[in-house]
Description:
Order of helices and strands: HHHHHHHHHHHHHHHHHHHHHHH
Distance between the termini: 16 Å
Radius of gyration: 22 Å
Helix content: over 70%
Number of helices: 23
Structural class: mainly alpha
Largest sheet: none
Amino acid sequence: MKRIIERLKETTIPHRLFMFFAVIMFLGMSAGTYMYNDIYSALFVFFFSILTLWLFIKYRKIEMDISKQTYRYSMLAIFFLFLLIQGFIVYNIPLGYYSDFIIVREQAIHLSQDYHIQPQFYTYFHFYPYQINIVIVIDWLYRILGDYSRVELFSAAIVNMSAILAGMTVFNVSRNKLYALFTAIFCNIFSVFCLKTYMPYTNNIGMIFPILMLYVYSADIKKLKKILLISIIVVVGSRIKITTIIPFIGLVLIEAYYILKTRHYKTLALSVGTIVVLYGCFITLHNALLNKMEYKDDPVLKHGFVYYFAMGQNSETAGQYSKEIGTLGDSIYQIRSMNGDEYFRDKAISYVKERSIIGHIKFFVGKIAYCWGEVRLDHLKICRYDNILIAIQHYTWYFALMLMCLGVFLIRHKKYMVFFLGIIGVVAYLYLSEAGARYAIMYAPIVFAMMGWTMSILKKI
Length: 461
């Protein structure tokens, strides 16, 4: 106990705040695992997560020499093995699309034939302007692949590749090939049975950008090349799913602090300039595509952050989708034309004011529990043993989250703080905005990468 107290005294105040947040997050996700599983599945998840950690710590000194060539072939084997499983699921298991996915799919197919969005769906895309970008991407994929099932498989393959990148990121930061392979396998086991990883949409296609950014950030490459690659990833990713930039904000905050501390202002100016130029070029290309489609955004109907903030603060729905906000439909145009976002701002303020301080704490923990502890709704219906598959999936997720939080206490490396600050940003966004497990799962590769890094550190203790 004395050694632990001494170690805590040596940490900085920001690091102690990270530790406090890690504890809160661990408690929240543990509560979520219990709340959104039957008692037997929850006990299975808790027991095997602790057992796995105990076995790893007990036998962590076992060495396994893996050559560079074996490591590469193993990563390829993992990718193609899970791709075969994903292919079997795509062509044999009914996926059961949700309404948003159906709209995006149908408009992508229509776009490939007519290169126009059907007018009856203009309002939908005015509400959610980023959806038009994913429609364009799926349209291109549909034209190239020629069959929508292949587009679904491609979408699943992106998630598969994100898991591989999580493993490669672990190798970048730890130089440990075994834990890199373990990370890729665990991340793929988690995602392979998630229903929405097979639906070409912003969440799963956008999944690759945050982990790809952190892979490049952790790679041993020249600074100029790294800035250029990260800038491209951020600009493209932000047009697919705006929330992909959240981990980038964490990276910017940490790196800006060190740049200002060391007074490397040229690096800061180069980074900002590169992003501005690339973003300008990308927006020009994007607007040209929209003009060719004869489609134009309507800024009055566009749902901004205030809209999602109002939805995310509704205590009656626990911060999840709110019919009171979400079903206003065409009347939104009239509301915004008269008062802008004042209606939604007033709604959000009223929701916030009606909660006490204790109420805010409970609301916050409840949203963590739902977003990070609930993965059942995204599970495929495969066989009569679905509950076992769900428990295994939830076990890999809980184990990864547990080690991610543990890593905050063990690792003081700047890059780990960048990774974890990105997760804090995601949690903050999910607290303020609409809660949803599908939004948290989008950052699963980062969580698994932090799991693998923590395992490599535990081996050295």
